[in-house]
């Protein structure tokens, strides 16, 4: 078994950070786009929807292409495309042009993730969850710090300051180009070996287990997006609190999640992947419940721990999905990351329906219950699967 290659994983994680920096930046830029182009709230929301659909739903397609043939040059190209789309968005003089910029950025994000997670798989060594967490945390930090970077640019240079978003894309693109052969060589070797093997159709057990893992990751994304969306609604609109306070709570939740991704993965490798997944989901319920009924300093304590525990399984579920579909690493990565994130976003829309009919507190209570649903699903997962040897 190849040992973990921290240098390669660090480089891939940095490129993941740069790619997802754009994903985090877009929501923070919406108020500036709204004012500059005189957009309605619906039009502003459509911008975010277009970005999420483009960056998430088409990921499995690129994953399927990646499984058919190695596409290593996607790795330096994708962050550059993602950054380019957002960087020129500040120059858009028409709504359709702005949507086009956002879609271009979304395509860059969609291209990167399946190839990135698949490539990272070959450098994780025996401690797969630990290695994958190094790659995954780059994206978590990118989403968390994207708003800060974007706001710094536009408040310093005006809306056209978005041009500065291209800089990290160019830099990481150049670095990856110089290291491309080293990073992609294990993937190419694996593709040659797979071609020699007799391909067998997926078993019903593989399909069922993968379906359960996708469902669990979708519910987790639903909770994550739901908390990030409804904490501001709950504290600002319902409790009439300080917007800055609500913003700090969301940042605490997301940044703690990034920390949890790194801290949880070694524990998952030590205790067992399935056991750790179940524990993280089970304990997320009381922590979110404590946050809901807490105030002041304790709100930050409970939301921080809840974020760490809930999101600690982010890299883990991807590793489990890859283990279930070892001959379809790109597709497994695209589904476990892209599809689940977009489906989780759809879940937030359902939470909106609950909030409209029964109020924001009821929507928050619905989010609190979701970890228990995911926990019950995890009890049905048969993992690790004993896959039959080929030939």
Please outline the helices and strands.
Elements lengths: L5 H32 L3 H17 L1 H10 L5 H14 L7 H27 L6 H30 L8 H13 L1 H17 L7 H35 L4 H29 L1 H20 L4 H15 L2 H11 L4 H30 L1 H20 L12
Helix pairs in contact: 1-2, 1-4, 1-5, 1-6, 1-7, 2-5, 2-14, 3-5, 3-14, 4-5, 4-7, 5-6, 5-14, 6-10, 6-13, 9-10, 9-13, 9-14, 9-15, 10-11, 10-12, 11-12, 11-15, 13-14, 14-15
3D architecture notes:
This protein is mainly α and 391 residues long. It is 82% helix and 0% strand. It has helices at 6-37, 41-57, 59-68, 74-87, 95-121, 128-157, 166-178, 180-196, 204-238, 243-271, 273-292, 297-311, 314-324, 329-358, 360-379. Helix 9 runs antiparallel to helix 10. It is globular.
What would the average pLDDT be, to the nearest integer?
87
Order of helices and strands: HHHHHHHHHHHHHHH
Derived structural class: mainly alpha
Fourth CATH level, the homologous superfamily of the largest domain: MFS general substrate transporter like domains
Biggest beta sheet attributes = none
DSSP summary: helix tally? 15
The low-confidence runs, each spanning 5 or more residues with pLDDT under 50, are none
CATH class of the largest domain: Mainly Alpha
Strand content: under 5%
